[in-house]
Write a structure and sequence with these properties.
Strand 1 and strand 2 form a beta hairpin. The chain is α+β, with helices and mostly antiparallel strands. Among the domains are: about 120 residues, no CATH class; about 80 residues, no CATH class. The strands form five sheets. It has a five-stranded mixed β-sheet, with no helix packed on it. Strands 6-7 form a two-stranded antiparallel sheet.
């Protein structure tokens, strides 16, 4: 799992990855700034995220966000740069996926926090926005064993491509490789293409009836590894029994409280826990819009 670093968690990513630090590369510098202007900027900055905090069922008073934001202002903060960031951020907030992406695609904000998209693969980073784009594929800031967080280029993988860095298209957004080695460049294996990352290379998923040794992602997307017999079996449709977990149930369903596969609810459907909802957001017994769990680091819990 990617480790989070830094002070202010405002640049959010899909799958789960790193958070932006308030100081960035220039945090806590010696150049004096208008502290009052910066505090006003942080308050306005945090206010933009209030609807996202509310949608996620988190605290909406902005206290945690403002407290973290004023700890380590970026070196040489200028009100003009802050205003540009706020204008662009408010425009981004009008988009449908803002509560998922946050300010990560807002260049003016990333520059203000000291992230300049100039880090090469393998170099240290604190957020995706530190990493330079690559024609080879997507670039992320990810945790590397023994190195902290580094920029990594991820390319769509084919069978036998190595090294692989993870699997996508499963019940979760991204399943990291089990390998202890984190390469600067690697292949992502797509379940939708019938592939998974075995820790070394992209390998073919096993069909129904094949022998398996894993509980989750070794079998084809329509199957699961039945642990009693270590055999890939068909996933159960809604109404079928699910004795050991939701991975026994077909995509779009989950294992209900009565150990029966039930269809996941859309926005507005009743729920008890997050996995009851397609959005994985159950608040007050109702499925809400999808939100990024990193919001907890920004908003704080509504029930401290």
């Amino acid at each position: 799992m990617v480790k989070r670093s830094g002070v202010l968690a405002l640049a959010f990513v899909a799958g789960g990855t790193t958070a932006v630090s308030c100081g960035g590369d220039g945090g806590g510098g010696n150049q004096s700034i208008d502290r009052m202007a910066f505090m006003e900027f942080v308050a306005a900055y945090c206010d933009v995220f209030t609807p996202c905090c509310a949608a996620g069922g988190f605290a909406t008073d902005g206290t945690l966000c403002r407290m973290q934001g004023t700890v380590s202002p970026p070196s040489g903060f200028q009100k003009q740069a802050g205003d540009a960031c706020l204008n662009d951020l408010r425009a981004a907030a009008a988009t449908a996926d803002f509560c998922v992406t946050g300010d990560s695609p807002v260049t003016s904000c990333q520059t203000l926090w000291g992230h300049h998209a100039d880090k090469a693969p393998g170099q240290a980073c604190t957020t995706h926005s530190d990493c330079a784009p690559s024609s080879e594929g997507s670039v992320v800031c990810t945790y590397a064993t023994g190195k902290g967080t580094i920029c990594q280029v991820r390319t769509a993988g084919a069978e036998n491509d190595t090294p692989c860095v993870g699997t996508i298209g499963t019940d979760v957004g991204f399943e990291p490789s089990s390998s202890s080695v984190t390469p600067d460049r690697g292949f992502v294996c797509d379940w939708g293409d019938g592939l998974r990352c075995d820790g070394t290379a992209c390998v073919r998923l096993k069909p129904v009836g094949a022998t398996c040794s894993l509980s989750f992602y070794e079998c084809a997307a329509t199957a699961f590894c039945e642990t009693a017999t270590m055999t890939c079996l068909e996933r159960k449709n809604a109404g079928g029994p699910c004795g050991t977990g939701s991975y026994e149930c077909a995509m779009g369903t989950t294992c209900g409280s009565n150990r029966t596969c039930v269809t996941k609810g859309g926005v507005g459907a009743s729920c008890q826990i997050e996995v009851d909802c397609l959005s994985l957001n159950c608040r007050g017994g109702v499925c809400g819009e999808p939100v990024n769990p990193a919001l907890l680091l920004l908003c704080g819990s509504a029930n401290p």
